[in-house]
Design goal:
- About 25% of the residues lie in helices and about 20% in strands.
- It has about 70 residues and is an alpha+beta fold.
- A two-stranded parallel sheet has the order 1-2.
- Strand 1, helix 1 and strand 2 form a beta-alpha-beta unit.
- It starts with a strand and ends in a 25-residue tail after the last strand.
């Protein structure tokens, strides 16, 4: 029995969650040949924290500027 855990970022949206679960269910059936009754899917949403990667405004090493000082 596959147990698939999905984490979505953003505001909770029942319709979006249902579409994602339905798509993963269909992919699991076609790719693994599993019957719907033996597939467990857990889907949760979380609001991105300011500055996180999911926030879209995260400062990464590529965008940060460093000032080097010698001791």
């Amino acid at each position: 029995m596959p147990h698939i855990v999905i984490h979505l970022s953003g505001q909770p949206n029942v319709n979006q969650s249902r579409r994602v679960v339905d798509k993963i269910m269909a992919l699991t059936q076609s790719a693994l040949g599993k019957q719907p009754g033996v597939i467990a899917i857990t889907c949760s949403t979380s609001r991105p924290k300011p500055g996180s990667l999911a926030d879209g405004r995260c400062r990464t090493l590529a965008t940060m500027r460093f000032t080097w000082t010698s001791a």
